[in-house]
Automatic annotation (TrEMBL):
Its EC number is 1.6.5.-, 1.7.1.17. The keyword NAD applies. This is FMN dependent NADH:quinone oxidoreductase. Belongs to the azoreductase type 1 family. The gene is azoR.
Length: 198
């Protein structure tokens, strides 16, 4: 089994989403036989999708400059990791009601027409199929099943768009509500992991 772990917190240490992603991977790899690739987007940020990146991506491969080839190669590497994975584990904290810029940059990198999705007669078709995805969602407040949760629809929509439809979410909420709330959130999240990874 090949496991790809994506840590998208801006924190390189002390991140609850990373703690939970680590716990999920540890349960998945209890036998120690899996190949685990970890990508920490705080320690090694992926460049944002800017004008230069767009120009590189939309320039035919045989007409790209060396700089353009280098930029496209960065995205190619992330796509290859996602394609090779049997299981993808994502640590996804909520920042200002959305996903982090780190995770958005990863999403932008792996979404490529003709490679991870295509447009068919009835609309887009995801090509990253046959993979299990676990997403550790952490929040400072309580947003699950509330109108304020605009993060979860974004995550579901993007993952489905590229073909990742077998998705299990683990929630840890209330981290801005004091020490007791944090302890409850961590305990609840750990119980969720134990329930979905028996």
């Amino acid at each position: 089994m090949n496991i790809l772990q994506i840590n998208s917190s801006a924190r390189s240490t002390g991140s609850e989403s990373t703690r939970l992603a680590d716990a999920i991977v540890a349960k998945l790899n209890a036998s120690g036989t899996a190949t685990v690739v970890r990508r920490d987007l705080a320690a090694a940020p992926h460049p944002v999708l800017d004008e230069a990146a767009l120009q590189a991506l939309f320039t035919p491969a045989d007409a790209r400059t060396p700089d353009q080839n280098a930029r496209v190669a960065l995205d190619d590497a992330l796509i290859a990791q996602a394609q090779a994975a049997d299981v993808i584990v994502i640590g996804a904290p909520m920042y200002n009601f959305g996903i982090t810029v780190q995770l958005k940059s990863w999403f932008d990198a792996i979404a490529r027409a003709g490679v991870t999705f295509k447009y068919g007669a009835t609309g887009p078709v995801g090509l990253l199929t046959g993979k299990k995805v676990y997403v550790a969602v952490t929040r400072g407040g309580i947003h699950k099943d509330a109108p304020s949760d605009v993060q979860l629809p974004h995550l579901k929509a993007f993952l489905s768009f590229v073909g990742l439809t077998d998705v299990q979410f683990v929630f840890s909420e209330g981290h801005g509500l004091g020490a007791e709330a944090v302890e409850r959130a961590r305990l609840d999240a750990d119980q969720q992991i134990n329930a979905v990874l028996v």
